[in-house]
Amino acid sequence: MAALPGVTRSAINFAASTLTVEGRFDPSAVIREAADHDGVVARPEGSPAGGAPAAGSRLNAARTVLSGLGLLAGYAAGFAGASARVTVPLFAAAMLVGGYTTIRRGLRALPRLQFDMNVMMTGAVAGAAAIGQWEEGAAVAFLYSVSNYLEATTADRARRSLRALMDLAPREARIRRDGTEQVVPAGRVLPGDLLMVRPGEKIAADGRVRGGTSAVNQAPITGESLPVDKTPGDPVYAGTLNGHGALEVEVTREAEDTTLARIIHLVEEAQAQRAPSQQFVDRFARYYTPAVLALAVGLAVAPPLLLGFPWGPWIYRGLALLVVSCPCALVVSTPVSIVSAIANAARRGVLIKGGAHLEELGRLRAVALDKTGTVTLGRAAVTDLRPLEDGVTPDRLLALAAAVESRSEHPLARAIVEAARRRGVAVPEAQDLTALPGRGARASVEGETLFVGNTRLFAEVGGVDPAAARLAAGLAAEGKTALLVGTTRRMLGAIALADGLRPQSRAAVAGLRAAGIVHVALLTGDNSPVAGAMAKAIGADEVRAELLPEQKVAAIRELRVRFGSVAMVGDGVNDAPALAAASVGVAMGVAGSDVALETADVALMGDDLARLPFLMRLGRATLRVIQQNIGFSLAIKAVAIAAVFPGWLTLWLAVLGDMGASVLVTANGMRLLALRPDENPPD
Ligand code: ADP
Ligand code: MG
To answer: What's the CA gap between 625 and 528, in Å, rounded?
Structure first.
């Protein structure tokens, strides 16, 4: 592409079947140029897929079949004793028909000195004809066209698995706009529209429930098999399936911007990312092809010239080497595996942001878990309200704390705000709300700077009086998270919260061990008694409590020194630096959070920790499959090259071997599409 006038940059994303071209150029020239590549039909983005691609591949299939028939007829005639005057035209016809596309492309690439596979194959076919090996030339042309056809169809299958994800969103939406109900294309829905979702219908846009209640099956996005109850105020996502109730949803995002659209976009990008194994293959191929090409020329020319050997057999050997110079199987071995594994994970609500992270998942030896929102539900509830100052009622204590926490995303903050709402206490206005990560929050309420947070926070801002310290310690000893409320000079009281363990946490840790993890650590900013109890409940090896976000980073670094590859699993609240410091950062429950979705290496749309062991097995299986594929492809080439010298390798055998290797390698990679999370109940 870059050779076309005006084009400054071009990139192909095979997984998404897109071609990006930059510069000032003639689009029709790009489309014509693209047509010169195997099985490619380009059309401008957004234009409907016409009959062209199907017609193109049908034509290729027809040529392949015709070529095969010609070849058969040639063999049959030869077997029946017909003379060369009959067989040669038959073989020549089979050669030209089967080799049509390859030869045409080869002749175009040659003047540009691009020695691609089309040039090599054209050379091999023409050379065979030149030395009178018509039969061989026909067989090579036929087999190579079969191999191209197979490759195009298998690549299509891997791509279609991603398409299924894109087809999730309904094409039309029933909305109420300007007081009337109307059906519009889903792409035309705008934020602010009111979407009317009937029972059993797919939801067409991201939005917030305004009326009605229902259970929504979010499996397409989060991978959770159980429907989630939705009441007014709850978010819903495009592509999910409404249950038995009717819902009125206020649209919050444009069609290109929905969670589903983002996921698809990120998956496409991830599949296009080059994995480390791919870089090895690329480097190898860069030297391999020219080296074999030089060897081919040398083999065809040197023995007859220098040693006086006959020309015919040695040119034939050179031609065989030309065919062997294609690193075909090697080139497809890694991408097909990565694309399959990433598509598999995406179907289960897990976004892996590229082959490198996938391979890293397969190498993990230790896992660090964040406590709040990861191991626990992140739905803490207020259990105790303990005023410390005369005249402060429990409701007043809660109201002040809720004022300070009113805009925080932290699960503890949300629990306090929620408790205030439930008890119906009037929450005063607050200004200058500031989050103090790992400590608490600060705001100015009724003219005073008020803090809500742990004892560490108060120790830093003015000291904790003995009564407050005793109260906090007592609540912590009961296994609760204790927060103090006060100013730098006065302690108003303490609020205790408890957060339930996720039911899957214990099984997930056991699953991690079964998947080969040797060390599980629990990292938390919460107090030691709570953290210790949680660690014991889930079966962790190590627990570190009262950590600030930067201390979590230090803990991850230390684990990396001890164990090599370490994953950090968190909810993205207060733990983003630790996620970034880990070998793989896994964020969970990110369906609603754009930041976590964009920054994590691996994002669990839902919050099922039990996906983790599966991901590790998937990563490991990917590494294994890639190794098998690379090893196998190299071995086949080595055998083929070795067989050329004694003259054992016939041209058709060389092509057949290549084809067989490519198909085997592709099929092996596509097994990753079918890997199932066996530890989970079937979904
Ligand atoms: P975890 O490591 O368990 O996910 P965090 O790092 O988010 O916890 O927070 C650690 C501790 O910091 C909490 O247990 C709490 O004591 C305090 N804290 C953090 N943010 C807040 C907040 N917004 N309000 C009150 N306390 C907070
Ligand atoms: Mg957290």
So the answer is: 43
Helices 84-98 and 52-79, axial angle in degrees (round to 10): 160
What tokens does 215 get?
């259970």
Encoded tokens for 66: 């015709």
Q: Whose alpha carbon is nearest atom 21 of ligand 1? A: 440
Return all residues near 513 (Cβ < 8 A) that are at least 6 apart: 520
What is the predicted pLDDT for the residue at 77?
Answer: 92
Tell me how far apart the alpha carbons of residues 285 and 97 are, in angstroms, rounded to a whole number.
30
- Is 528 a residue whose pLDDT tops 50? yes
Radius of gyration of the chain (CA): 32
Helix axes 311-324, 611-644, angle to 10 degrees: 170
Q: Which atom of ligand 1 is nearest to the CA of 481?
A: 14
pTM above 0.90, yes or no: no
Q: Which residue from 127, 90, 91, 92 is spatially nearest to 106, judged by alpha carbons?
A: 127
- How far, in Å, CA of 586 to CA of 620, rounded? 17
Q: Assess whether pLDDT exceeds 50 at residue 308.
A: yes
If DSSP codes are grouped into helix, strand and coil, which group holds residue 278? helix
Average pLDDT over residues 668-674: 90
CA of 417 to the centre of ligand 2 (A): 18
Banded model confidence at residue 438, pLDDT cuts 50, 70, 90 = confident
Q: Are 40 and 34 in contact (CB under 8 A)?
A: yes
571 lines ligand 1 (CB under 6 A): no
pLDDT for 679 beyond 50: no
Looking at 61-75, 241-255, 278-292, 453-467, which range is the least confident one? 278-292
- Mutation choice for ligand 1 from 485, 574, 579, 607, CB with most ligand atoms inside 8 A: 574
Ligand nearest to the CA of 555: 1
Strands, sheet with 602-604, edge to edge from the N-terminal-most edge strand: 350-352, 602-604, 584-588, 566-570, 366-370, 519-523, 542-544
